[in-house]
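Batch manifest line 658
LIGAND: adenosine-5'-monophosphate-propyl ester
JOB: complex structure
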Amino acid sequence: MIISFSTNTNFSRIKLHELSKRGLKEMDRITSYENYREAWNNSHENSQDYWRRIAETYQWSRPFDSISSGDFSDLEIKWFEGGQTNITTNCLDRHLKHSANKKALIWEPNSPDEESITLTYQELHAEVCRFSNVLKEHGIKKGDRVCFYMSMVPELLTGVLACARIGAIHSVVFGGFSAQALAGRIIDCEAVMVITNDEAYRGAKTIPLKEITDLALETCPSVKTVLVRERTGSSINYKEGRDHKLMPLLKAANSKCPPEAMNSEDPLFILYTSGSTGKPKGLLHTTAGYMIWAAETFKQVFQMQNDDLYWCTADIGWITGHSYITYGPLLNGQTTMMFEGTPTYPDAGRFWDIVDKYEVTHFYTAPTAIRALQACGPEHVRSKSLKSLKVLGSVGEPINDEAWQWYNKEVGKERCPIVDTWWQTETGGIMISSLAGVTESIPTYATLPLPGVKPLLVDSDANIQDSKSAEGNLCIASPWPGMARTIWGDHERYRQTYFSTYPGKYFTGDGAKRDEKGNYRITGRVDDVINVSGHRIGTAEVEDAINEHPAVVESAVVGYPHPIKGQGIYAFIISSAQDEEIMAKELNSLITKIIGPIAKPDKVQIAAALPKTRSGKIMRRILRKIAAGEIDTLGDISTLLNPEAVDQIIKQTASIKE
Ligand code: PRX
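JOB STATUS: finished
ARTIFACT:
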C-alpha cells in the first residue's frame, strides 16, 4: 500500500508547508506508532519523494538535481547529486539566527574539581572558524586528510568541524590505539597533519599521546605538521618546523571563515574499523547523505524538546562520537555534552553526578558501562536524584536482560524509555531502534527499522527468511543515505567485505531474530569479529599480533561471554614456551604495542594442538564452544583431523586464569 504524505495528518505535506511558512523549516517528528508505520512505508514506496522532502529542510548552497542513484550491484551509490552544502553550515550557521545564545556544547573535564566549559552556538561557530583558519594557515586544503589522535577535549570536536568547514577529510583515531596502529591508519589515508595532545587525562592515569604520535610518525612521511593541544602541561618534545602548540594559534586566529561548498558526494571523513580479515578498513562517509542520516536518525530516535540536554558518553574516536556527540545533535540545534573522563573516576557515581549537575535529560551509553557500574553496587546510583532523565539509550553491543532491567530500574526509575540502537561504523547512523516514547521499548530488542531501512534475515544458503518470526544473518536490502560509500583506496575490498556473501544485499556481519510483530533482536557477530566492551576487534588482527612472538607457532583467537565486557578475548596458542602466565604477560605487552591495550587477551591457553579439519583449517567453532564452557554441545568432532586435540584442550581449560 502506498501512503502518501498528504493522507497523513501527523507527517503531512500541509504541515511541512506551514512550518516553512513560519520559517521553521523543520520536518515534523514521527509521533505515534501508526505515524512510524506510514513514514516507514513511505520511505520505501516513495523513497525519492520522502528523502527529497527531508533534504529540502537543510541549507544547500546549490540545490540537488536528483535524490539517489546506484545499487548494491554497481556500488556506485550517490545521494543528492548535483547539490552543494557544508555540514557545518547546517550544524552551526543555520542556528545563529534564532539560537545564537543557546548552549551548543558543554564540556565536563576528567576531574570534577576542574571548571567545565560551555560554548553557545555563536561561540562554537567562532571556535570552529578559528580552527579552520589555523588549518588553512598550515596549508590544509579541501580533500587533505587530517588525523586526530586526541583525548576528549573540546578541540577534538571543534577540530573535526573545522575540517568539515574547509573540506578537509578528518580521520579520528581513538586515543587507546598504539603507535603502530596509529601509523597504519595515517599511512593508509596519507594524512598530512596530525592533531594530538601533550598527554590525555583518563581517570587517575595520563596517556602520553604526543610521545606515541612521535613514535608513529617515524614511519609516516606524509605528515608535514603536528598541532599539539596542551592538556596536562607535561614537558614534551617539539620537532622544529613540524610541531606547533595549538592553543596560541587558535587564540590568534580570525573567528570568521566561510564554509567550503562541498558536493554532496565529497568525502567528509574516514573512520577505521576492524573486520574479520586483514588490516583495519577506512570507511569513507560523504557529505550530504551522512548529514541527512545523522540529523534525521537523531531527531526521530531521541525525540528531544528544545530545552533538553543530551549526553552521549562515547568517545569521538568511534562512530558514535561522530554521529551522536558531534553531528547529529548539532544538526538538530540541540545542546551536546562531551565528557573527558571515565565512568568510575573518582568513583562509580561520576556519571550520575554529571547527570544531576547539568540536569541531563537524554543519556546514551554502552551496555559495558552499564554492567561495570551495576557491578559497583547500587549505592552509587541510588544516592543520586536522576530526576531530570527522560530518555536512556544503549549502543555498541547487545544489551543483556539483566543490564537492561538495571538500567531501566536504577537509572531510569522505570519512567524513561530505553532506545536500544543498533548500527555500525559502516551505516553512519542508527538503523534499528525504538523511537523514544513513540514506539515500544522491549528489553534486549533493538526493535524496529528506521524509515529508509529494510532489514532482511537470510540463512547461510542466502534464502531470505520470509516468515514473520525468523532468525538469520542480518542484511539490508537497499541503499540508505548514510551508508559508507567505499573503503578508502580499496573499492574492491568494500565489495568483497559487504556485498559478496549475499550478492545484491549489504551483509552486516551480525545475526538477528525477528518476532511476530517485526521487532529485531541482534544476537551478535556471526563473523570473526569480537565485540569487547563495545569495541570491534578482528580476531585475525589479534592473531597476527600474537604470531609475531618468536615462541608462538600458531594461534587461534575467539570471543567468549564476559560478565562486564560482553565478550572477552580467548587466545589459544601453540608455543615452545611452557609457562602460561609469563606468556600471557608477554603477549599482552606485544598486543599493546601492535594494536593497543583494548585488544589484550583475557585468557591465554597453551595447547598441544588446535582442532583442525582434514584440509587443515582451524575449527574455530569448536574453540568458541570450549571458550564459552559449552562442551556438551560441541557436535560431531569425529571428522576432525585430530579429535584428540579437543579433549586435551578441554582438560586444560579449567586451569586457565584471566
Ligand atoms: O555487532 C554489532 C554491534 O556493534 C557492531 C558495530 O560496531 P561499530 O562499527 O564499532 O559501531 C558501534 C557503534 C554503533 C555491530 O555490527 N552493535 C552495535 N549496536 C548494537 C550492536 N549489537 C547489538 N545491539 C546494538 N544496539
